[in-house]
Specification:
Two copies of one chain form a homodimer.
Chain A (H helix, E strand, L loop, with lengths): L7 H7 L9 E3 L5 H4 L2 H10 L6 E6 L2 H10 L9 E6 L6 E4 L3 E8 L5 E8 L5 E2 L1 H7 L3 H8 L4 E2 L5 E2 L1 H4 E2 L6 E5 L8 H4 L5 E5 L7 H6 L5 H10 L5 E4 L9 H8 L5 E3 L9
Chain lengths: 270, 270
């Protein structure tokens, strides 16, 4: 789960996301719309008799905040909670599991803020089924090929790995950048993502105000998408001053062709 | 505002309660359903450019909690916030304004918890309009009578105050008792309230579990209402294990005749 605003459990219930499937929570920063739902979610985990551990990644101060809630009696944890406080100044690998690697993205906002880059782990090469037939591969030879090796046979015969295996699909990547000003230092860090979520709090005619408040415009989000060669851009975090959010999409489309609006309940397949 | 659960602003908006009318918040205890909406509400006050002061009354630890949020950057207050930490062991007058006096009610729950008794301030006596005619009262004499004095005229004539003024309506009182076990020590403190809100988390067949968890049953709430001569009882804080909450009303009605269920959006006139 990425960020955890007040009332997030209402949405989890509404869209039938099982809370029990959440094992990691990534908090970008401590403003309420990204963070004030965390105490309630932890309470719900307690009430649901969760026993497996929960990992929360967030800015420095997270331990103090959770500790204060425990101290004043808001909850007593009955499951293991691992809190990882993040360095806001560098990009570093913070989490790895069997499917994904997560790195931080230093963002520039009014308070220490971290974006997150989710990248699939490298997959092993797959055996080309036609090659099994063609080269009459044995089980040990198939195993060898899956591990990336060439197949060596008696005499001098060598079957190169590339002739019997298929290149795995490219690793998919999703970058989450909220909240942040327009920052070209992000471009290299998020190069070539399949989906880039970038905040767009204002339209570009309010660029000065955006920067002063630590935010970006829809046009700026689109420029970051273009420069970083994202495949698709997801815009969000719209100021409530705009009643019709289609204006964000229109502004971004002038710069970058493949855009969508992040709206409650929408699902995007990567 | 009494207590401040997560998402309370959704209800304030839904029922068109103006946030700007809130000048005092009374927090009974630090469990999430009574408290986790406070940071978001404070943030909204900031965003709405509130300048008038807000007073929050709550358990010891409230200053530390608000201080932690300021320290980690969740908000920087741009209006004056007065935090009053309460002694959970005694009943004391904590707030007075032109209309109401608020006292604490020590409750027995799993963590330090305080109920609140709201009582109208004593009103001045009202002039009986028929007496003005009858005694031909002058403006200074009316003023004197309103202040509670008898009217003295030349010679020995004394018009007693009770002959020219009306006894004001009795002071209305509302007691809020959540969360608490069944506790007869409350009876004297809340004697004769017009409306008593008392928690009823369980039905009486779960009395043991109620007590173990620091809660009361509907029957127990009704007994407290009866013993304290409340005019009306409001039941609330129902466990989600009960799908049909009318069972609480039925159980309480066996003991006390004038009961209602506290449900979202209902208004009760005192």
């Amino acid at each position: 789960m990425i960020d955890c605003g007040e009332g997030c459990q209402i949405r989890l219930n509404q869209y039938k996301v099982k809370k029990s499937k959440i094992d990691e929570i990534f908090i970008s920063h401590f403003h309420g719309d990204h963070f004030f739902g965390l105490p309630g979610l932890i309470t719900s985990f307690n009430l649901s008799s969760r026993t497996k551990s929960l990992r929360i990644y967030g800015p420095i101060g997270l331990k103090k905040f959770i500790g204060t809630l425990e101290e004043i009696g808001s909850f007593y944890l009955n499951f293991p909670l691992e809190i990882h406080e993040l360095n806001p100044d560098i990009s570093e690998l913070i989490h790895k599991d069997e499917n994904v690697e997560v790195s931080t993205l230093p963002l520039k906002h009014r308070i220490p803020t971290t974006g997150f880059l989710f990248r699939e782990k490298e997959k092993p090469r797959k055996i080309d089924s036609t090659a099994i037939e063609k080269f009459k591969l044995s089980i040990p030879e198939i195993k060898q090929a899956k591990e990336g090796g060439d197949v060596l046979r008696h005499g001098d015969q060598r079957i190169p790995n590339v002739d019997i295996t298929l290149t795995p699909k490219p690793r998919r990547a999703y970058a989450y950048c909220s909240d942040t000003i327009y920052d070209e230092e992000l471009v290299d860090l998020i190069s070539g993502t399949d989906l880039l979520y970038h905040e767009a709090t204002y339209l570009h005619d309010m660029q000065d105000q955006a920067r002063a408040r630590g935010h970006a415009t829809a046009r700026e989000a689109a420029i970051i998408a273009k420069k970083s060669h994202a495949k698709r851009l997801l815009l969000g975090h719209f100021s409530s001053r705009y009643k019709d959010v289609s204006v964000f999409l229109n502004e971004a489309l002038e710069v970058f062709p493949n855009c969508d609006l992040a709206q409650d309940g929408k699902t995007f397949k990567i």
